[in-house]
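Hey, I was hoping to borrow your eyes for a little while. No rush at all, and the record is pasted right below:
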Amino acid sequence: MGRPAKGRATTNAAPTIILVRPQLGENIGMAARAMLNCGLSSLRLVAPRDGWPNPKAERAASGADVVLDKAKVFDTVEAAVADMGRVVATTARNRELSQRIVTPRRAAAEIRSWTAEGDKVGVLFGPERTGLTNDDMVQADTALSIPLNPQFSSLNIAQAVLLVAYEWAMAGEEAPAERMSDHSTRPATKDELQNLFDHLERALDQSGFLRHKAMRPAMVNNLRALLQRTAMTEQEVRSFHGVIKFLSKRKHDEE
């Protein structure tokens, strides 16, 4: 297999992801990959255990070079957030600190608002084994907690980054919540659906299915409503015409 294609960030008005004392290069690389999947490219590292740069991070990033190449390294959390206007810290545990705690979705909406106003925003993620300490948490004005199974809420750091980054990306998503796949033909018009139903109704009449005059209006309307609900494509309508024609011809041949 060849080297993965290099990705590019999709926006400038975005938060900075700050990994505090990350332990494994692979996790840094996977976090970078998750960031770029969601359009983020600004990464800061606080005292990475195995130093920086890290070859294992590059391999795990799978082409997210733009994130790793621009990553900045700091000795302390204080230094890493010094130029930030807003800081959000992720936590999985209740702490002694009195802090405002929000969900990733709420945080994402607020980060969108802050960055739109020109604020620099940082999101802190703690080391894999211990998470952020109280000394780290006090550098933030907002805490973020991911609501998961209370009996098993442990996340890999890259998973946590992906969840938060995804919510940030979706907070600004303008694509429709539902669409047809790209390879599909256009939706069928009402006229095409009417022609299909007329074809089906003729075939049903010929087969004797609609022979009960009292029940016929309700059966016809139910079938018509069924076809309207299917959201058929132009290609599907043509295929259905073919099915009706084949079944009608076969019945005629058998007779």
